[in-house]
Every structure is written in structure tokens, then in C-alpha cells.
Fold these 2 entries.
Entry 1:
Amino acid sequence: MRRDLAVIATLFLKASSLQRKRAVLTVAAIAWGTVAILMLLAFGEGLRNQMVRARRGMGENIAVWWSGETSKVWQGLPEGRPIRARLDDLDYLRERMPTATGILGEMTSWQTTLTWGTTTITGRVTGANWQYGEMRHHYAQPGGRFFNANDEREKRRVIFLGNELAEDIFGDLDPVGEILQVQNVPYLVIGVLNPKLQMGTYKGPDEGGAVIPITTFAAQWSRHWLHNVVFKVAVAEDMPRARDEFAQALAAKYRFDPADEQVTGLWDTAEGGKSLATEMRRFQIFLGVIGALTLLVGGIGVANIMYAVVKEKTREIGVQMALGAHRGWITGPFVLQGMTYTLLGGAFGLVIAIVLIVLLELVPVEGNQALEFLGKPTLSAEIAAATAALLGFIGILAGYFPARRAASVDPAETLRYE
Amino acid sequence: MNWSLKKKRNGDAGGNGHIIEMAGITKVYDTGKIKVEALRGVDLVVGKGEFVAVVGPSGSGKSTLLNLVGCLDTPTGGTYMLGGEAVAGLDRDQLADVRNRRVGFVFQNFNLLPQLTALENVEMPMLFGGIGRRERRRRALEQLERVGLGDRVEHRPTELSGGQMQRVAIARSLAMEPDIVLADEPTGNLDTGSGSDVMSLLTELWGQGRTLVVVTHDLNLARRAGRIVEIRDGVVVSDQLAVA
């Protein structure tokens, strides 16, 4: 074995150098393929990260339920009954849904006049429980805050503004501390939403609305019906159980069949997230396959050139065999050669791809909608590993097939006559 | 690394002093549609220290015979003992080992590896024979010295004349101290002067006790051999001692 390696190494170093032009072309083909696959995968990864981040913009592992209407006769009650939750149902639900880590209700007024000084606009105001800040990812910009349990308990007139809405009313001015008239009732602005990526929405993007404590809302609008209920679980796997608890609790209180989808149907973002992740993974695989094909073409180029070399060197191979070379000693250098050029090309490709990605990082994302959507191309360990594995595989193949041709050289045939 | 040498010494020749013992050798090339009988029952015995010239017209089967003798190819029928070792049934790598330690080849067109120096060309069979680097170098230098190319060791084949290339090839064929040197038209590509140098060198090797089998058209070379075997249509038609 050691002798085999020594012979192969010696032959590889002494007898198997490609012409420079060929070597350069081969390495370039592989490098190009590597750049293609890495860039495609990196863009895919960036897009996926962006999507996941955007999906999280609305909150993680939450479900949203609106009112429903029964579609089944139940305990002598007819179908077609509207089922709506009330403000005081929230404590009831909190008791009966141990799996949920948070439950809140929302009331919404879409056409609300908001006045500050001489500026009046019409906007959306949501009344929500104080947990909304954390559950729906309403984080305040520095200098402000979301409202808390005390604000809610004491029905304080405090308002939290979406960043777009704040800009519409206050322009460049910091709104925190200002008094904003909501339907002619004064509210203290306590915070502005930190800009965030948001993909899903059920009443418009968060940046364009305002939020006030639900108790304040109920008092000002004299409402007790909830527009919708939101609950959250710790991990996506808990969601089916939480949904079941929700349906059971609501069905017990309002007397309908807990299996009645017309009532209990809701928007489960955990489920949506799962399918989004699958979709994105598929998309990435698709990109990867395209890149792999490009790389494969490069590999075929290597194999092709190696075939040409084998053909040119048939006589030399025959001579080496006549002098006593084993077949493995003939094939070894060719495999090594294929591997070397492939890995060299791969290394060049990696360097080029990294440079491109670093350069792309320098392009400002803000204000560029395409880039905001695409996100930053990102190289991950998985991408590197997959590309390296593919390169190795292609390198072996690119060397193996020509080497097999070399091994099949018949010395007697080759040396017979010229 | 020593196993090959030891084995060779033990089996330098068969118990009866014969290097080559061929009996009833046939070789059929089957191309699918047509079968070509290149050899049709050849018996050939070559003893240690003989210088045999194989002559015959083109297509008579002499190159085929040389390929079989050199274990580059295997016979279709018959038995072949090389240095007392039966060659039948060996796989390709085993045949390669037999060639490496028992046979030295000299070709008409030299067949040196173009990107290697004269020295590296001579080292090549020793690399395959598992001889260490220093020993390879020492023996290669010695062989090149012996064929009169001590001052050309770092030259590549393209920098050498035809006669010099053939002398490198002869040095290479001797590198593993083989039982037998096989030469296929060794003077065929050389001008008269270089050709006669190479002939002298081969004769000299014979004088040192080497066993040589040479296929040739060159009557001058054939006449220098101790024995001339003539082949026609795949059979030996005459086998006689040369008249010096």
C-alpha cells in the first residue's frame, strides 16, 4: 500500500502535468461552476432568512381567531348561529388553555380620526391587551415603550404608533410625549414601533396602525365584542394541542360542536411557517440543482480534457505497463489529477464567491425594494459542506472515468506498431 | 523491495537452465467476425546466455511471439515457462510484476517517456520494482554510464539523438537486471552509424552473459546473433545456429 502510494505520487508529480492552457481552462470551468452554485445557494439562503425574519415580524408561533358561525346542529341548537368572543372571555380562555403561553383579544376601529395640531388623518386604531407588545413583536424605538399591565388596568389613554403612521402625522419630529387626539379624545404617545419586516398581516401592516389598551378602547367605543383573539405557544409543536384546547373551551361556553371548523377555523402561523420553511427549502434545492448542473458541466469539461490526455498518452501508458506498472499505478495519477484541478477550481470559485458576497454586503439595502425582498446572500456551513461534497464527487468522477480508460490500455496493442 | 530480486536469483532459469520454454504456443486474435491465427503451434526453448534473432517477413507472427515472450500478451494455447515460472493464469498486475523483474524491453521507436530525463527514464522500472530512491538513482547512473551516456543523464529524450535514445532504452531495459532482454527492431529507426553502435552494444551485453531475443529485419544484426529463428505464417520454419 505504501509502495502504491509512493509510485502514484511519483508518477503524478513527474509525468502528469497538463498543458498550461488546458489546465487554466479546466480550473476556470470548475471555478465558474463553483461560483454559480455558491451564489445561487447564498441568495437562496439570504431569501430564506429574510422570509423567516419577515414571517416573525407578526410574532412567532401565534394563531389568530376571528368570530365564526356554526354550521352544525348541536344540543338542540340550530346551525347558523354567530359565535363571537367577548372581552371577559379572555380570562376564561386563559384558564382553560394551559398550553398557550399568551392569550389576548383585539378590538379595531378602521376609520379613526387622529389629530395633532393642524394635522388630521384617518387611521386604524387597535385596542389590545398589554401582552400584544411581546406577542405581536411591537417593540418600541429607543425613547419609547409599549403599554403595560398598569396602563391596561387603569384604562390610561396612552397610544403606541406604527412607524409609518407616526411619520405621516409627526414627520421628522419625535412623537413620544406628544398629545394625539383620537376621535377628539387626547392620548399620550408613549412609543413608536421599531421598523420591522412583516410578511403576514390580518388587518394591515403594523407600521401603519396605532395600538391602545383594550380597556381604554372598550370604554371609548363602548364595545365588548372582540374583533379577534390571538394566542401563542412556546414551540410550533404545541400548536395543535393549544388549538384543541381553544376549540373545547369556546365550544363549552357557547355550546357548539368543537369539531365545527366553521367556528373554530383560525390562522395558524406555526403551520404556515412550517409550509413556508418547506417551500423555501424546496426553492433552495431547486437553486442548488441548477448550480450543481453548472458545476457538473465543468466536471464534464475536466473529464473531457483528461480523456484527451489519456488518448494522447496511450503509448506512454502502454510503455509504463510494459515496464511493470500495475493498473492502479496508472489510474491513480489520473484520479489525482482530476481531483486536483477540480479542487483547485473549487477553491478559486469559493474565493470569488466570497468576494462577490462581501461586495454585495456593501450595497445599501435601505430603500432598495428588490434587495429588501431578497435579503443578503449568505454563505452557511451547510452550503459550504454541500458544495465541497459535490466538488469532491465531481472531481473523483472527472478523474475516474478517464483513468478507467487509461487502465484498459492493452500494452501489446499499443506498442505493436506505429 | 528485495523480494523481487531474491525471487529472480532463485529462479534465474528453470532447473534445466532454460529461460524460455514454449511448447505448442498458439495465438488467435478474435475480432468477432474473423479469427486470425497469428501463431499456430510454436515450440521455442532459449537457454541462459543465448542471443536469438527472430526473423521473418511482415505478418509472419514474430511480433506476436515477442509479445508473448515478454508477457505483454497471453497465448491462446500451449504452455509457457519464463525462468521456470508458469505464466498462464496470472492476472494483469501479476504479469506486470513478471515483466518488471524478468524482462527488459527495447523498442524500435525507443518509447522513452518524453517529459522525464534520461535518468528518470532508467529509474522508471525500478520505481515499479519497489526499489528505494537512492538505490534507483545509483543503479540508473551506473547503467547510463555503462551505455556511454554518463554525461547525458539530465537530458530529456528530445535533446538526445536517436542512437542516444536507444542507448537510454537499453540502459532502462537492464535496470532491473532482468533474465532476458527483448528487442523489437532495435535498429529499425536508426541511421547506419547509430544502428551499428546499438548492435555492438547488444553484442557486448551478450558477451557479458545476458540472454537476448531480438526481432529484426536487419540481416547484419541477425548475423551477429548466436542463433536465428525464422518464422513464417505463425510457425517456426527454421532454427539454426548462426555462422559467425
Note: Strands of chain B lie at 18-30, 35-47, 51-55, 77-82, 85-86, 103-106, 180-184, 212-215, 227-232, 235-241.
Entry 2:
Amino acid sequence: MAIRDRMSGNEAVAVAMRQINPDVMGAFPITPSTEIPQYFSQYIADGKVDTEFVAVESEHSAMSVCIGAAAAGARAITATSSCGLAYMWELLYVAASARLPITMAVVNRALTGPININNDHSDSMGARDSGWIQIYAENNQEVYDNYIQAMPISETIRLPIMICQDGFITSHGVSNIELLEDEKVKEFVGEYTPDNYLLKQENPLAVGPYGISPYYMEIKRQQAQAMKDAMPIIMDVAKRYEKLTGRKYGFFEEYMMDDAEVALVVIGSSAGTGKEAVDRLRAEGKKVGLIKLRVFRPFPRVQLAEAMCKVKAVAIMDKAESFSNSGGPLFNEARSSLYDLPNKPYCINYIYGLGGRDITVEDYYEIYNDLFIINETDDPGDVYRYVGVRDSRFGEGGFDHKKYEE
Amino acid sequence: MKQAKDINEKSTWQELTIGAEIYEPATSVLVETGDWRVMKPVFKEENCKHCMLCVPYCPDSSIPVKDGKRLDFDFVHCKGCGICVKVCPFDAIDFVKDLKEEA
């Protein structure tokens, strides 16, 4: 029987960690992920796990601890946010290229400039090309479920994995949750048994060697293949998890998409608000849908494109700027995935929620309304837009996509 | 388990080890580091007094010594830096372009 409880997303991750009892944790506190190592340290102090906790002086060292431990053959974990993740930067690439299955709980928070501690996706989106698998959650239950699926995915394909959740919104928001029994989690996650590791004395091993130009590119090609091969593994693990819990997971979730005319694609907790907007608009007879992307790395371009093609116009929501002058990271990848398809929908981008700016049901009304206008006029206007930002060009009536071009 | 001797610059990405891991010690003996050389020293034995000045100056231990006499260069390791040429007081080392034969 599942255990009914209520807790924050941070505690849910810490509970999953306790149930798994990994070998090594290297971590440094940073808001809003601090509670994760804090709860976990308590479990260690109480003798509930026998994990070796390495208290480091920085996130650079936290990731170095994980790399060393994973290379030695241990199951290694960490947790971080924002500039902590940024400070791990060079090691993220080392972990991925050495193919070390490290599990990192990322509690998404804006990168500073101006100083800000609230939620957006600029930290993990910035790390999107580092070779880590990235899975995002809408709510506390999903964070817990994703965390338990992380190691079976990561250790099978030998790629490190980020389990992301929205800072404060789910990390500190307490909600109902269904936990699994400890034994069930242990059985599902299993033991970590790498073929080769530094502490295996029968065969000496060198990890992360100098890869000169005649070799470097082949190793990168291998990594690209691993990311591709992770796709079926993610689905297999999700199916196994569904059998255990009844909760179904995929690359993304489609909400009211079957007869939808317009839709939006969104990552994380904002999908919850989006679903509320969908429900209310559906009650008025408006055929709107929503796609919540769960797996961003590897990017499920074929499947996502197919889902987006069910509608005539799609709004792609980015909780991170990339200052590319051509939209956010999700927009660019999702939109490009449609390019080869004959009946592709109009695709517009909204940058939203930066630095903890709330996105409301009313904001979503505006977006869906814009999509219906595009449908009627067959004119997408400027596809690179902001929502929820104060703009002198727009009055009380809000956004007007014709004015946006001025 | 893939051995280092079976991996070379013609190996495809599928043939390399995962993450470029190396599963055995001392694989550097398989690598000819002398192939970066642009210039190469030429030992002129007739001028050599075996003063041994060149030997400790060589940064790559590429001048073997046997029974108190220096031998010809070890071109597997010599990078062609030319330090030995500079320090030789007896004009016993020439320095010429290392023209690689086309394979």
C-alpha cells in the first residue's frame, strides 16, 4: 500500500534519497535546494542511511566529489540550484564525457543579474548542452517519481541525470503525496553494479584521459548516441514504474489535446496553472490543449512534433531567455522539430516567469486568445514575445500582436 | 574488454571504449610521441667526445647512454626541440628538417 503523506518537493527528494540509500553525497548548500542536503544530513545523523556525506567548500568540489566517487564505483548524488549549478559548469562536461551516472537534484532558480533567488529555468537550460539527461516535474509527486526513476535510466545508459523542479513553487510548497514503501523503492532502483571502476583491483582503469583531436570527436559522437539510446530506456523505466505505482510517465503529457485547435507547450509547475486555464476555457466551449514537456534531454523531437501537429497554432513557453534574438531554448528546438513536416502549426514563443514572475490563468487566457487570432487571420505576427512583462506599448487591454511588430 | 593496442587513429566511434576509458596500465608505450617533430637532431659520431653535456639537457630522455658513451637518438620520444644542438660544444649534432616519408 502506498503511503499517503504531505511534504515539500525538497523533502520528497530527500525521502527518495533516503529510500535509495546511495553511497556518496557531495553537496554545498544553496537556496532553494539547501533543504535537500539538510534533510538528508539528518537521515545520516539518525543512522537511517549509511551514505558518506562529503561537506565541500563549493559546488565545483561537490561535482568533483561525485565524479571521483562515481569513477570509483559508487552511486553518487548531489543537489544544487542556480549559481551553484553554474559553478559546477566545467565538471558537468567531465561527468558526462566520462559517462558517469551521477544523479543531481536541480531546484531551478534564476541566475543572478540582477540578484534574484526565485524560480526560472535559466540555470538548467544553460546547462542543456552539457550532456546530462534532464527531466522536469510539475508537482511534488512528479519530483519524487522522477527521482526514483533517475538511477535506473542513468546507470543503464551511463549518462548523468538532472531531476529538475521549480524552486520554491514545488521545492517549498507542501502538498499531498503518495510515497512508496522503502523496500519497493530499493527493489525498483536496484544495486549499482558497474562493469569497471577504479576500486576494482583486478583490472586497473583510467577514467577521463586526454582525448587528442584524432579521438575527441569520436568520443563526442558516442555521447550523442548515448543520448539517443536513452530515449527507449526512459520509456522502459517509466513503464516499469507505472506497473509499480499506476502513475504513467512519458516524454511529455498531453492535456486535452485530442480535439484541440490551439495548444501550448510548457515545462514544469506552470503546466498546473495552464491546465486550470484549459479547464476554464473548455467550460466556455473553447477547444484548447496543453503539452507538458517532461524530458528535455534527450529532446523527443519526433514525438513532440507529432503531438504539436494536432493543432493549428502552438505557443511555446520558455522560462529562460537565451538572448539569441530568436526566442528561448525550448522554442528553438520545438519549432525546428516541425520543419520537415508538411502540415505544421504556427508556432510562437512566449518568454515568461523570469526571476519568479508569476504566470497566471489570465496570462494563459491572453496566450490562447492570441493563438485563436492567429488561427483566424493566418498571420502569426512577431513570433518572439514576452508575457507578464510591463510594456509601455500595451495599455490596460494588454498584449496586441499587431502592435508587437512596431 | 577492448585493449589499447587494438585502438588507433583509424578506429571508428563504435570501436572506442565508452568514455575513452582505458582498462590496462602503461599504455603510453604504445604511443609514438616523437611524431610531432618538425626538426630533428642528427648525431655526428665522428665529432662527439662523449662529454655527456647533451644528455641531462634533453627534456625527453631521448639520448641513451651505454658504457659511458652516448648512442644515437631515441626518435620515438625526441620532439626535435634542438636544445642538445645548442649545448653541444663540439658540433657533433646537426639540426635538419624532419621530412616524413609519405605512407
Note: The mean pLDDT of chain B is 93.
